[in-house]
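user: can you give me the structure for this one chain? tokens are fine.
assistant: on it. calling the predictor now.
[tool input]
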Amino acid sequence: MKALIDTNILMDFIDKRQDFFKDAKKVFALCRTDKVDAFVSAHSLMDLCYLVRKTKTQDERLRMLRQLCGLFVVVETTSEAILAAAEHMDFSDFEDSVVNQAAVKAGADCIVTRNQGDFKAASIPVLSPIEFIEKLGESLDEKDSLTEVR
């Protein structure tokens, strides 16, 4: 399965957000398996770096990016994707429209996000982390799960 992982899932994992970390950790662990070809949009990584700039040093952010780029295929945000996102007026949030365009460009089977309501106009199925985990039918061992990206 090809899955594009949304920024909020990345942030849940990186910041170990209390209510969401457990599911994000399972999503990351599944992305390490042969069952998933995992993608992120380039702008999601830029947003992530901006969001953690006060809690992580420059070296920590660089290590984090190297690890994320090793786990995920980064989908470039091209001028064509930006224009297509801008022209897709069914999205209330431009960034979500860009994520949708990245998923289409990657040939993704789904977008994984906690904000499914923001993706009502998506071109492909949108799954919550729990739906993604259930769809793959995985019961991951804790030893197979990542605990952090440093």
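assistant: here you go. Helices lie at 7-14, 21-31, 42-51, 58-71, 79-87, 94-106, 129-136. The first helix runs from residue 7 to 14.
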